[in-house]
Predict the structure.
Amino acid sequence: MKSPNAVPHPLLHKLLAALAGFVLVLAGCASPGGSTATAVQAPKNIVILFADGAAATQWDFGRYSSKVLRQQPFVTTDVVFREGALGVLITSPSNAYVTDSAAAGSAMSSGFKVNVGAVAVTPDGKSVPTVMEAAKAKGKRIGLVTTATVYDASPAAFSLHAKSRRDYQALVDQYLALEPDVLLGGGADYFLPKGTPGGKRNDGKDILAAFRARSYQVVRNAAELKTANDGAKLLGLFAEEDMDFEIDRDPAREPTIAEMAAAALKVLSQSSPNGFVLLVENENTDTAGHANDAASLMRALWAFDDAVKVALEFQRLNPDTLLIVTGDHETGGFSPTYAQKDLSTLSSKNRFYTGDGELRMLGRITMSLNRVKEQLGKKPSGEVLDKLLAERFPGFRLDPDLRQLILGQKTEERNYTYVPQNALGRMVARQTGYYWGTSGHSTQPVLTGAIGPGAELFRGYRDNTEFGQQLHRLIGGKQPPGK
C-alpha cells in the first residue's frame, strides 16, 4: 500500500492541476462579486416582464388555476422558471424592511437602494441612472408597457427620477424629454390640461399634442393599437387613470397586456441595429393583492402569462434576446390554506382543504372587488350590495359581521385599509380558503426567471440592487458600484 503522503504520478499531477484550474474558473463565473458580464454573451435585446406584487405563491396560483380552469400550461412556471435560470430577490428599501413599488423598482433599475416613495433618487438626493437611460445612451431603443398609469411607480422607476412618486405631472414631463420609442398604458389625465375631458394638468399644457409634434403615433383604444404603424414611435393611453382589471375589461376600449406587448415588440424590433430594452408590467396583480381579490388576481396572472407567451415566441425567433420574468415585491400576504367551514366546532371534521371545487367558485365571480366598491358608491346600501353579490358572486354568502363592516365602511384590523374590498375578500376566503394576511406589501422575496444571453447572471439569492447592476453591465452602461 502506498503512503498517504506519496507524490502523485506526473500525469495525475497535471490532471489534478487542470481540474483545480477549471474549478477556479467556474467559481469565478459563479461568484456574485466577479466580473461575470465578461464571461457571458451580452444580449442585443432585453425584455423584462414584470408582475407587480407577485411572488412564489402568486406564481404557483397562476399555474394551478390555469391548469384546472383554462386547461392551459402556465408558461411562466412551466417554461421560464423550469427551463431558465432561477433567482430570488430580497426586496427591502433603504429606510425600512417593507418596500413600496417605487423603491423596489428603483433598486432593480438603477442598482441603488432608495427610500420608500422615491423614484431613482438616493437618500442623499442624487439621481442615479435608470435602465432605460443607460439603454438609450448606448443607442438602444426603449419601451415601457403597463396596465397602470404610465407615470406609476414601476415604469417611472425604470426610466425617470423624482423625490416623490406622486409628482405625476413632472414625471410625464420627463417622458417627453426622454422620448421612449414606445409608451403604452393608462394615465391620460396628466397628459391633458384641466378643462379638457379627464385632464388634470395645472399648467395648461397638452402633452399629447407635444408627443404628436415629435412624430409620435398616438392611439387611444384597442382598435387604434391594432392598426398602428409598426415603424413609428408609439404612445398609447387607453384610460384616464389605471387600466381595468382583466375581469372588468372592455375589449373594445382597452387592449390586453399581451396585445400591448406584441405591439411594442413590433415597433422596437424595426430599424434597431443596437437592439432594445422593453419593460412590460402588469400592475393588476398588485392592485388585486391590495384589494384581497383572488378572482381578479387569477385572471391578471393569466393575462400576464399570455404576454409571456408573446415574449417567448419573440425570443425563440430572436435568440439574441434576454427574457426576464420577475416582480418587485409581494402584495397581500396571499395564503391559500385549509380552514374551518364555520366556528361551530374546531374538530378536523369541520375542516376543508382548498382544491378544485373552491377554485371553480372563484371562476364564477364576474366582477372585481374594486368595481363592487364603485357600484356601492359613497353610501353603500344593503339592497345594492345583495344584488351585486347575487349577480356577480354566485354561491357566496355574506356573514353578518362582514356585512356590518361593509355597510358601516369600517375595517377590522389596522393592516386592512381597503374598504369594502378587504371585507369582501374575507367573504371569499371563508368559503374557498384563499386567505390574505394584509392589504399591504409583505417581505416575501420574489422570484426571477431568465432565458437567453446573460440569463445565468440572475441566478441565486440576491439583493434587488444586484438585478439592476447586472442589467447595467449587460447594457454596457456606467456600472453602479458593488457587483
